[in-house]
Amino acid sequence: MGSNEPLNLTTEEIACENHFRKNTIRDDSGRFIVKLPIKNDKLDIGDTRETALKRFFSLERNLRKDPQKKRKYLKFISEYRELNHMELMTQLPSDSQSVYLSHHAVVNENSTTSRLRVVFDASAKSSNNRSLNDNLMSGPVIQQDLFSIISRFRTFQYVLTRDITKMYHQIRVNYEDANYQLIFWRDSSDKPVQTYRLLTLTYGTKPASFIVTRCLEE
């Protein structure tokens, strides 16, 4: 992990780092493709479909009461599809090989760019009281602490910064593990509910912060 490798890692953090090294590849364009670091390489989770479907219907009812929020939500989902961050499932995996994530809107009135953000809930409990996040390893914190960053910022006369557009979405999740990121959606309540698969690293999953920072370091 380089000269900044953290010390005193937990057993899980070491396993998560080893999992990244062993299972991360890059495609022809250089884009990272990762596998989700599942504890003991075996998913222990019950039914997630029923809860996700109930919460989707609840989301629809709430959006009908707020047309402006609904338009923003539709815009977000449409962009997700257009950018190939998710795809429509034509053949569903077995229940034992799939996880359905609920989603909802978070509104930040102080944001100047995107006041509405869709959050995918990887911590929702399944029928056996375990969530997707309960099954995932959490990697170590590998970015420098804030004090070190500020100190370095004050060292030189000139400073360069950059922003990575849709940072988490630049990283793809391999197809098998993307089945653990299924969601329900339909653009209108008079259409059938459809199942989509999220193809990129999902903010809100336990190892997402580690993975995105680790890819930057790599």
TrEMBL record:
Domain of life: Eukaryota
Gene Ontology annotations of biological process type: DNA biosynthetic process
Protein name: Reverse transcriptase domain-containing protein
Source organism per UniProt: Ignelater luminosus
Lineage of the species this protein comes from: Eukaryota, Metazoa, Ecdysozoa, Arthropoda, Hexapoda
